[in-house]
Amino acid sequence: MQSSIEGNFSTGQRPKSSNRIFIILLTTAVSLVMVYFLLAELISSKTQFDVADKENPKIVAMLNTQLQKNIDKHEKNTFHPGYLPTAKAYVAAYLKTIAKLESYSRYGVASSRGRNAIEVRIAFKDGTVAEKLYTGNTSSHVMPPPLLLSVTMNDGIAVKVWTNGVEKKGSPEWIVNDLNTLIEAAVFYDIKRNRNGYYPADKTPQDFEKEWE
Question: Would you state the pLDDT for residue 209?
Answer without folding.
Answer: 86
